[in-house]
Amino acid sequence: ETRGVQAAADGDKFIDAHSAPACVLQDVACTALGLLKLKGYLSFHDTSAAARDFGLIKHLPPAAVLYPNSVEDVAALIRAVASSSTNLTVAAKGPGHSINGQAQADKGIVIEMSSMRGIKVMPHGDDDCALPFVEASGGELWVDVLEATLKEAPGLAPNSWTDYLYLSVGGTLSNAGVSGQTFRHGPQISNVLQLEVVTGKGEIVICSPSKQSELFYAVLGGLGQFGIITKARIIIEPAPEKVRWMRAMYSDFEVFKKDQEMLISAMQDPLLTFDFIEGFVVMNNEDPTNGWKSVPFSPDQITASMLPPDASSVLYLLEITLGYNLVDVGPVLEERVEKMLAPLNYIRSLMFSTDVSYFKFLNRIYDLVEVRSRALKLWDVPHPWLNLFVPASSITTFDSLIFKELFPVEFGGPILVYPVNRDKWDSRAATVVPDEEVFYLVAFLRNALPSGPGLASILEDNARILSICEQLRGKQYLPRYIEEAQWKQHFGADQWRAFVQHKQMFDPQAILAPGQNIFHRNP
Ligand code: FAD
């Protein structure tokens, strides 16, 4: 076994060619990897940790883990793998918040992207780009991007987020990056100015909408298949100091849907709509995770007598925010909020609101969910999550077939349901979305808790829900399929053809992101 990394006189580090475990790697690959001159290092120890992800469903350890210190390290590794081995694969890994082993490389090499750091905030742009931007390494977490931007360019921040910020820049840009700002700004992949990418051929390429644009759009939402994102330039825009964070309840799905769609249709008018629009299905019971007690900012603000007596097994929650600066505090702000809420048809006694800093709002899942779950030892449990995009024309059917029918009593995690505007998605990017102007993100974020339904039963439910979703022309987000035919169906004929062509162009040996289970390198 390798006994560590040797430091060369010039400060570079390399592994001892003869110390890699020959039983795992082919000899020739072993030698090629051993000859690599790296600024970071390659480790054959403790590779098991690199196979752990948030899902806790799959666990396929790699043979080695690269901790790169430069883009050249990443390129050199891929070139060595391409030239010396016929079966090794490489997976870039962020914090591993995938559900189904997407960032794993069975007996291959995992690149821990977090070892390459760097966030550069450019509030006035640079010679190439007049727009303000932040440039971050692919392994940086969004929470650090937010903190750095607010610190170095007060009043500016990226405009499109995910609900949870401890995800990596390269990880979400390989999928889409969706949250309550998507209706107005599009997903995170619609807000990227430029990428630095290492392709599956080991080439380092700077790409943007005007430079090497085919690679740029292939990589955005490309499930890691075409290149490893080592840097991304992200648009930054004015950000508020504070947000008014509001939660309003509904008992009628049609009314809830109509209000959500009305709000997102007014996206360009800040006087008519909010900055953030999401929705949830809430169980009509006292479950602390997703019953009605979970709705107010303090559970004692709600009692059973406040709920409509004729409500069905589920209720709906609209979550909205309005950003403001401290100088705006006063009657004008209050009048504005009142005016914006007036056309909505939520149950008037079931509206809850609080004011928090912009950072605290964006980081809410860490504070409200991760910290609490960890304290209760409920964070490190299997997470068989299912994310879908459902066309607006089918969402009512989805409500009656699934929300109301499948889970009448206990669910074990939140269910998200909120609409987005398709014209905010760039059709040149690789993410697959339904062919309809408005579609809903529907997320079943169920945790296999010791007290609740087991993993197998949740996976069975997921398969049933996915099948209904597909019949209703929906698409899986953060997709996971086993068979090639399923991938073809997911992409549709034209998008699949383009996806395969891009694979041939940018990763012809199918080295990258094997955990997505789309292409296979000599299994
Ligand atoms: P990983 O799991 O490490 O990797 C995911 C995939 O991307 C793998 O195939 C990997 O090989 C590839 N990859 C990783 N880094 C790179 C890179 N630099 N270049 C190329 N490919 C790379 N998603 C949303 O859209 N909205 C949400 O609100 C949201 N909330 C979430 C909340 C939680 C608690 C969790 C666990 C996940 C959430 N997600 C959300 C899903 C998240 O976007 C995905 O898990 C995504 O994969 C990012 O996770 P990661 O950075 O850990 O990537």
Structural summary, described in words:
This is cytokinin dehydrogenase. Residues 58-239 form the FAD-binding PCMH-type domain. Its cofactor is FAD. Pfam families: Cytokin-bind (PF09265), FAD_binding_4 (PF01565). It comes from Sphagnum troendelagicum. With 523 residues, the protein is an alpha+beta fold. It folds into three domains: 5-113, Uridine Diphospho-n-acetylenolpyruvylglucosamine Reductase, domain 2 (2-Layer Sandwich), CATH 3.30.43; 119-238, 2-Layer Sandwich (Uridine Diphospho-n-acetylenolpyruvylglucosamine Reductase, domain 3); 242-477, FAD-linked oxidases, C-terminal domain (Vanillyl-alcohol Oxidase, Chain A, domain 3). 26% of the residues lie in helices and 22% in strands. The protein has 14 helices and 21 strands. An eight-stranded antiparallel beta sheet has the order 17-14-16-15-19-20-18-21. A five-stranded antiparallel beta sheet has the order 7-8-12-10-11, sandwiched between helices. Strands 3-4-6-5 form a four-stranded mixed beta sheet, with helices on one face. Helix 1 packs antiparallel against helix 2. The longest helix is centred in the last third of the chain and has 17 residues, at 455-471. The protein is globular, with a radius of gyration of 24 Å. The protein starts with a strand and ends in a 17-residue tail after the last helix. Residues 1-20 have low confidence and may be disordered. Flavin-adenine dinucleotide binds next to strand 5, helix 4 and strand 12.
